[in-house]
Amino acid sequence: MAGDNRHCSVLDPLSDHGRDRGRHLLCRLGPGPRLDRSMTTLILGTGLSGVAAGRLAQRLGQEVVFYDERVDASIPADLESFPVSVGQWSSELLEGVDLVVTSPGFRPESPPLMAAATHDVSVVTEAGFALDNLDTPYIAVTGTNGKSTVTELANDMLVESGIDAVAAGNIGAPLSDLVGTSHDVLVVELSSFQLHWMRPNPLAAALLNVAPDHLDWHGSFAAYSEAKSRVYSFMDREGVVAFNADDTVVVELVADSRAIKVPCSGIRLPDQGNGVRDGELVINDVGYFSPLTDASFRLDIVVAGTVAVAAGATREGIARAIESFTPADHRRRLVATIDGVSWVNDSKATNPHAAMAAASAFESVLLLAGGRNKGLDLAPIGTVASLRGLYAFGESGPEIAAGATVPATVHRTMSEAIHAAAGDARAGDVVLLSPGCTSFDEFTSYADRGRVFSEIVMTMKGDEAP
């Protein structure tokens, strides 16, 4: 790569010597500005992240006040010395407060956050609160889809390289629990809710894709995109941002980044970037083999490798992590093959972009889609070229079916849709559960939905004629 301005210590740690130089960078970047430890902090929500933030504030010697809309909210015994207000919001709770730590349950236009803006009180999320007090360098990962996979895979690459790394943030342990620990590096998954209130400065960032999602919370696609772009917007010039070179929205967003930009692809090798060449995954001029042919998973591997290299991962560690990598549960997982029909669980697809990407990865697809909409345009779900049929279910079933360009039927429940698809499937088809919606009209979570799908499929397999 003659003339490649990425050849600095952050991008060459693919040998033991390079790894040392990568570690030197980790130390040099250091933490962000510290918060005043004598402040009073109001924490919105008493869930997992709120409790973690409360414990961090307690360790910092701050005064803490909790607020939760739920009248039955409570906090653990070790925090019971701090007052908890529940029920209807009162702006009197902001008296003497220096900082508000919020949670995704509170939208920007909610009364507590509107009051904080009126009183000029700073607002952060639990993740932002932790990062402002963190001594450990970190990688930040976001995107509409695939961020958990990249976070876990980058972490595995670092661990396999002998680096003490931990996955955290929107996945794994709350960041507040890791403040003061002695890990070499953290790999942090950040959601748009968290990024909305943050100014992160990671040593490396990943932006995988940006498509309409959570518009009921952000209010517009522009606001959602701006939140996602914050993963790299405050980075130093020495930082690395790995981005999806095949996502036009991402390319446009990243164009003005000050960081070192590394374009990544799961289908080609971008100029001055990382991707696929002659069937091989190429990360910083080093080739790696993966049996996975799905372009989305190949992109995940390439992006994970790019940010892991920035934190000191070795080629041997990256290779071992790629070799052992398997897709996460409920993400395009083959459940069973029955009479030549493949049944695939992609329940984690909770937006149209994810459902359409999954359907495009196969040929001759009978798509199961539906659930509860998040204020998104669902019509495109039924227009993917690979679809042979669409089985729409749940609250959003009629809306999805109305936009379909293939034969579509509407079903009250997912189970009814599954059995209808089973009756139409023929050898060579893929029956794909990729709902494009949340699960909360019928299930407790996408995992619960995927579990029920798998159980029904396995029951059908058990009934298969010998």
Descriptive overview:
The chain is of the alpha/beta class and 466 residues long. It folds into 3 domains: 13-30 and 134-324, UDP-N-acetylmuramoyl-L-alanine:D-glutamate ligase; 40-129, NAD(P)-binding Rossmann-like Domain (Rossmann fold); 333-461, Mur ligase, C-terminal domain (Protein-Tyrosine Phosphatase, Chain A, Alpha-Beta Complex). Helix content is 32%, strand content 20%. The protein contains 15 helices and 20 strands. It has helices spanning 16-29, 48-59, 111-118, 126-131, 147-160, 192-195, 215-218, 221-233, 248-254, 295-310, 315-324, 352-360, 397-402, 414-424, 446-462; strands spanning 40-44, 63-68, 84-86, 99-102, 122-125, 138-142, 165-169, 185-189, 204-207, 240-244, 260-264, 275-277, 280-283, 286-288, 333-338, 341-345, 365-370, 387-393, 408-411, 430-433. Strands 7-8-6-9-10-11 form a 6-stranded parallel β-sheet, sandwiched between helices. A hairpin with a 2-residue loop joins strand 13 (280-283) and strand 14 (286-288). Helix 5 (147-160) packs across helix 10 (295-310). The longest helix has 17 residues, at 446-462. The termini are far apart.
Give the topology, please.
Layout: H1 16-29, E1 40-44, H2 48-59, E2 63-68, E3 84-86, E4 99-102, H3 111-118, E5 122-125, H4 126-131, E6 138-142, H5 147-160, E7 165-169, E8 185-189, H6 192-195, E9 204-207, H7 215-218, H8 221-233, E10 240-244, H9 248-254, E11 260-264, E12 275-277, E13 280-283, E14 286-288, H10 295-310, H11 315-324, E15 333-338, E16 341-345, H12 352-360, E17 365-370, E18 387-393, H13 397-402, E19 408-411, H14 414-424, E20 430-433, H15 446-462
Parallel strand pairs: 1-2, 1-4, 2-3, 4-5, 6-8, 6-9, 7-8, 9-10, 10-11, 16-20, 17-18, 17-20, 18-19
Antiparallel strand pairs: 12-13, 13-14, 15-16
